[in-house]
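step=encode ok
step=design start
structure_in=
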């Protein structure tokens, strides 16, 4: 095994400090598989180009000797930074620990100090000692004390989020009851809890509450490895959260991302007043493949998060605007008509790194009927109104391709329901990778066209529908559609509509990711 074989896992404690964005992440410096979890540390001035720093924390005390796991940073009004993280002890008990920078004047926050009296929180009575992890960023309550929430489960099947109160980050009181619980959802990990403005264009500090604010509660479901969220109302007096729609509660409704995506984490960027979201894209090949290639897992492009005040039911996710700094040559296509059963090549040259904006309109050319279709049949499953969209990371002969598509469906209620989907089933000739169809319904209003933005980066495809109402991340392993052989196509596999497409496509430069070069002087 090479010395640079590594596993990069979920991110922890993102923050902005003295001109630098900081990303900490679970990291195995010894192998491309799980184990020896250490905190890697990287910094950036623009969220796109990253510089590796020395490890922030390593498993070197009894309370984290089996791993320095996920955590969160809280920036205090006086400038202090409190980092709470889960440690797996010498007996594999999950405990919560405190760390803080050794030197706050250091913009790079190179050195971190673990609190001498760790752990600061141990599993409460009745809680499984190995199902108690991932403390959130703290928020200030109306009584002037801080709260955090930690994921766990009750009776094996009820996902719960416990609330702790503290005034000093070293001593904590478990509050009565839970922030929220949902039966049947199992263990909640990597819980995230943050406010969103109902009529706002900026993010909110985690402690914001009051009129015009909703709260997002997100949990990563350990049983299904999916990130779910719901929007609701937080009562800062009782420390209880109630979903706006109980039928779409956490774990049984909306997903943050409908693709290969897990353990997401947001932070408030006080520099630009944005709520920024990161997610983890794990592998779908074999462990042997990961060891052979020497690395495993990547992070998504950071996304800005806002409340969708048009639907009132979901968040909007959108790539941070800094991604535009990578744009190179652009190509525009206007009102290309794609007939039923057609594929149209888009002459843009190499199509391995792209930022694609596409709008579609449909013209019904034959009678439609009630249909029961969704995403599961993929792009080959033809219906009257769909599917139509893009074939990304495709080779010239279409032996490999990844369709990103819409499928409007006439329901029995007489309305059109739209699905947004990503079909990986023909994305690779390789036989030992997991390939499936991802997707969900997406709200499309009568005054809107079908809109998608797709970021293509060789083996990662991040697809955003209707301004970010739904997002699908795909991890693919092309063997033919690589480098100069990758192409982009429009397609329409509907039986009863013509599709008119308008696109603007940018070729993207590569982001640099390399070690920080310290001044030798």
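sequence_out=
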């Amino acid at each position: 095994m090479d010395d640079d074989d590594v596993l990069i896992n979920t991110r922890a404690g993102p923050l902005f400090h003295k001109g630098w964005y900081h990303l900490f992440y679970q990291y195995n410096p010894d192998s491309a598989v799980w184990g020896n979890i250490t905190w890697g540390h990287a910094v950036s001035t623009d969220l796109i180009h990253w510089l590796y720093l020395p490890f922030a924390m390593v498993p070197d005390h009894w309370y984290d000797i089996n791993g320095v796991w996920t955590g969160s940073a809280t920036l205090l009004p006086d400038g202090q930074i409190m980092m709470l993280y889960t440690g797996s002890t010498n007996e594999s008990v999950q405990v919560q620990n405190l760390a803080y920078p050794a030197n706050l004047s250091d913009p790079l926050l190179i050195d971190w100090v673990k609190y001498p009296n760790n752990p600061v929180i141990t599993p409460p009575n009745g809680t499984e000692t190995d199902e108690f992890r991932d403390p959130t960023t703290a928020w200030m309550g109306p009584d002037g004390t801080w709260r955090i929430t930690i994921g766990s489960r009750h009776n094996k099947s009820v996902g719960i989020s416990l609330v702790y109160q503290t005034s000093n980050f070293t001593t904590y009181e478990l509050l009565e009851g839970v922030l929220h619980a949902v039966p049947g959802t199992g263990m909640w990990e990597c819980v995230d809890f943050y406010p969103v403005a109902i009529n706002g264009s900026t993010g909110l500090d985690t402690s914001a509450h009051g009129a015009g604010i909703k709260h997002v509660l997100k949990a990563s479901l350990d049983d299904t490895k999916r990130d779910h969220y719901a929007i609701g109302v937080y009562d800062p007096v009782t420390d209880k959260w109630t979903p706006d729609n109980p039928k779409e509660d956490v774990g049984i409704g909306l997903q943050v991302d409908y693709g290969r995506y897990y353990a997401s984490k947001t932070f408030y960027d006080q520099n630009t007043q944005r709520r920024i979201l990161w997610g983890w894209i794990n592998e779908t090949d074999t462990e042997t493949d990961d060891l052979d290639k020497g690395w495993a897992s990547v992070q998504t492009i950071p996304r800005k998060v806002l409340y969708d005040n048009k639907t009132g039911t979901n968040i909007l996710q959108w790539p941070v605007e800094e991604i535009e700094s990578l744009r190179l040559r652009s190509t525009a296509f206007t009102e290309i008509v794609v007939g039923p059963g057609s594929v149209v090549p888009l002459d843009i040259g190499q199509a391995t790194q792209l930022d694609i904006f596409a709008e579609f309109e449909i013209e019904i050319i034959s009678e439609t009927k009630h249909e029961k279709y969704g995403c599961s049949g993929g792009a080959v499953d033809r219906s009257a109104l769909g599917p139509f969209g893009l074939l990304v990371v495709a080779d010239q002969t279409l032996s490999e391709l990844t369709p990103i598509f819409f499928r409007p469906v006439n329901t029995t209620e007489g309305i059109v329901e739209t699905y947004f989907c990503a079909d990986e089933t023909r994305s690779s000739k390789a036989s030992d990778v997991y390939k499936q169809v991802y997707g969900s319904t997406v709200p499309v209003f009568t005054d809107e066209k079908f809109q998608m933005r797709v970021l293509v980066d060789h083996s990662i495809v991040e697809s955003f529908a209707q301004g970010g109402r739904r997002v699908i991340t795909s991890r693919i392993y092309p063997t033919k559609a690589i480098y100069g052989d990758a192409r982009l196509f429009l397609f329409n596999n509907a039986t009863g509509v013509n599709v008119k497409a308008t696109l603007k496509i940018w070729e993207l430069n590569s982001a640099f990711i390399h070690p920080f070069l310290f001044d030798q002087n």
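step=design ok
step=annotate ok -> The first helix runs from residue 287 to 293.
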